[in-house]
Amino acid sequence: VSGWEIFQIWVIAFFTLALFSFMYKDNPLYKVAEHIFAGLSAGYYVGLIWDTVIVTQLWQPMIGGKWLLIIPGILGLLMFARFSTKYSWVSRTSLAFVMGVTAGIFIVSQLHGLVLPQMRATMIPAVSQLAEVKDSYESNAAVLRIIDGTTDTLAADTALTDVAGGRDSTSAIDSLQQVTPPKPTVLSDNGIEMDAAAITVQPDSSVWKTGDTVLITADFRDTTQLGFGDFYSGTVKIHGDSTEFKLANNVWDGWNGMKFTHLGGDKYRMTYEFVTQPRHIPGDYHIQVDIRRNGTMFMLTIIVIVGVIATLIYFYFSKEHTGVLGVTAKVGIWFIMISFGAHFGYTVMGRVSLLIGRVQFLIEDWIGSFRHIF
Amino acid sequence: VSIWNWLEQMDRRIVYTAVWIAVVFPFIVPTHFPISITPEAQKLYDAIEALPDSCTVMVVFDYYPSTVAECEPMTRTALRQFWRKDCKVITLSNIPLGGPSMAEAVTREIAPEYGKVYGKDFVNLGYKANYVAVLSGMGTSIESIFPTDNSGTPLSQLPMMDSVVNYGQISFIFEVADNATADYWVSIVNAQYGVPMGCGTTAVSAPKYYAFVGSGQFVGLLGGMKGAAEYEILVGNRANAVRGMGVQSLVHLLIIFLVILGNVSYFITGKYKRRIS
User: Using one digit for the tens of pLDDT, what is the confidence trace for A50-79?
Assistant: First the structure.
């Protein structure tokens, strides 16, 4: 440990102890530490923005010829007009631009990224996985090719040699054949089973072009009768050496194109259709199908639904909370309180963690540095 | 004055002292409590294990130095798991104060253990202001947002970045955050570009982000020091988080004891009746 490092440790220890001294009572040492921290943070932030934004993303590209950047530069400068009472209105132009861009980005992202997925997840019943089976097909010299519609972009790529023949200039996935499949994974003794030749792919042994519709079929047996609320779900993946894309993940009967058909007795069939996409990366691929039998956890689902509705009603203020509305709102308060309890518990853990971090520093680093000094 | 009345008027500094003792004691006499693995941590570990070897991933240091105790064990352990799989790691931060330098320090410290070389196996993009623009812009071109890395080296001079243009080449994003930036990673990057994501967050934020695991937007979640400790156990590298959980459990026991004590004295001293009347 160098002398400079020991000096740094002692400075950090001084400020840590100065801040903790507030727990006894407010004092000048605490004030000094607080003000130095605020000043350092502000100075560091200004320097960082100057270097990473103004210099590298505005000034340097501008003198490099990107003169259009002068427009955002001027819009940024206009923000300083707020310091003038007379010309503060000028800054509204920049603010309007910022607000417009922010609204444009946020409306779409918040709706599609937060509101809709969360609503969907709330409505989907809670499920438990009861059994699972896996099977796979491996492509024989499969080369999945990116075709942009007009140009064969990989025609000259010698790395894409077709090992077993059959590759042509427009092939996407070529000649899928089943290899020895892995032993199906069964999660319980009463699990579902898939035959060795369970998965079929149509069109098989033929060329897949970008835009082709491919039908994947997997036959399986389930000796356990589906109970009330039980249902099948599945995942279809295409694996490559360096990439994988999931065609369908945790999809249920009828969702996202995956269908489960009862063939009679203990026999069932899963069918899934997909269209090959230009984004698929070249490589050797094989198909994996996972099928699961799930049980619906009705009680949990009901609790979630009741909780969401009751909580929303608590925040509905257009009608007085009396009668049924009042009772539901009271149920809502209970759910909110339970949520607050979880938040409180986690907050305590978080704050204690921060204290642990500082104490760990004081004991191991600061007190540990004593042996280098004394 | 009865003991219960004294408890009601007890100086808060006595509680602070008790907590300090409970925190310091396990550092002197190591204390261990069992740590169970939650499904959310297991899912995150499994999802990373299932990634193809040598793929490119992002580790995002979206936390301030004040939450290092909770967040840094997560990034350290994630780097170990990714590098064990020979993944290429891109680090970046949307936090101006400390994020880029912590990413630099942590990666440079762990990289030699796995023989990783800067520029070839990992790159630190550093910080750029306005995370919404940054996250959206990287969907088109990472280089347009980060023309240089954290040290000012142009990305074109870093071999690892030759094959990385945008999110299309990123197999997984591990976001470690002590603030709401995780929301934007979900709503902008996961929702619009479909990149699988896992999240490590401070305990304060954890209850909020469990909803994202339920909806499948996060493959898994590490909540606070407990989540970090679970992850360390799963990866097989017991470090600061596991050690911290011994302290954590002891302090929680103390807090539970104080809460019970406070409630008992509240009822015994008749404060409850006075409040009702």
Answer: 888 888 889 998 998 989 999 999 999 999
Asked if residue A374 has pLDDT above 70, the reply is: yes
CB contact under 8 A, B216 and A250: yes
Query: Are the C-beta atoms of B255 and B1 separated by less than 8 Å?
Result: no
The partner residue sitting opposite A113, judged by closest CB among B186, B202, B204, is: B186
A243 contacts on B by Cβ (under 8 Å): 52, 55, 171
Contact list, B222 vs chain A (CB under 8 Å): none
Using CA atoms, how far apart are residues A142 and A204, in angstroms rounded to an integer?
12
Q: Which residues contact B153 (CB under 8 A, 6 or more apart)?
A: B119
β pairing state of A267-275 and A213-222: antiparallel
Residues whose CB falls within 8 Å of the CB of residue B54, separated by 6 or more in sequence, listed in order: A242, B85, B86, B87, B88
Size of the A and B interface in Cβ pairs below 8 Å: 143
Subunit contact B215:A118, Cβ cutoff 8 A? yes
Question: With 0-12 CB in 10 A as exposed, 13-18 as middle and 19+ as buried, what is A254?
Answer: exposed
Task: Tell me the pLDDT tens digit for each residue of B146-181.
Answer: 988 998 899 999 999 988 999 988 999 999 999 889
Q: Which of A48, A49, A113 sits opposite B190 (nearest CB)?
A: A113
Name the minimum distance, in Å, from the CA of B244 to any CA of chain A.
Answer: 7
Average pLDDT over all residues of chain B: 90
Q: Which residues of B touch A350 (CB under 8 A)?
A: 67, 70, 202-204, 224
- Which of A249-253, A290-294, B210-214 is predicted most confidently? B210-214
Q: How many whole angstroms separate alpha carbon B12 and alpha carbon A269?
A: 67
Spatial separation of the C-alpha atoms in residues A301 and A311, rounded to whole Å: 15
The pLDDT of residue A248: 61
- Nearest-by-Cβ selection for A105 from B19, B27, B136: B136
Quote the CA–CA distance of B195 and B169 in Å, as a whole number.
9
Following DSSP, what letter does each residue of A111-152 receive, concatenated?
Answer: IIIIIHHHHHHHHSPPEEEEEEEEEEEEESS-----B-SS-B
Categorize the per-residue pLDDT at B33 as very low, low, confident or very high, splitting at 50, 70 and 90.
confident
CB-nearest to B69 from A45, A48, A357 is A357
Query: How many CA atoms, within 13 angstroms, populate the side-chain half-sphere of residue A15?
Result: 14
Q: Write down the pLDDT at residue A35.
A: 96
Which of A178 and B97 is assigned the larger pLDDT?
B97
Inter-chain CB proximity A241 and B16 less than 8 Å: no
ipTM of the complex: 0.85
Whether residue A48 and residue B184 make contact (CB cut-off 8 A), yes or no, is no
| Predicted confidence (pLDDT) at residue A34 exceeds the cutoff of 80 | yes
What integer pLDDT is reported at residue A249 of this predicted model? 59
Could you tell me where the beta strands, DSSP code E, fall in chain B?
A: 56-62, 88-93, 122-127, 172-177, 197-201, 221-223
Non-local (6+) Cβ contacts of B45 within 8 A are: B81, B220, B231, B234, B235
Alpha carbon of B70: minimum distance to chain A alpha carbons (Å)? 6
Amino acid at B89: V
Q: Could you tell me whether strands A231-240 and A285-296 are parallel, antiparallel, or unpaired per DSSP bridges?
A: antiparallel
pLDDT band at A45 (very low <50, low <70, confident <90, very high): confident
CB contact under 8 A, A353 and B248: yes
Using a 10 angstrom Cβ sphere, with 0-12 exposed, 13-18 middle and 19 or more buried, the burial of residue A174 is buried
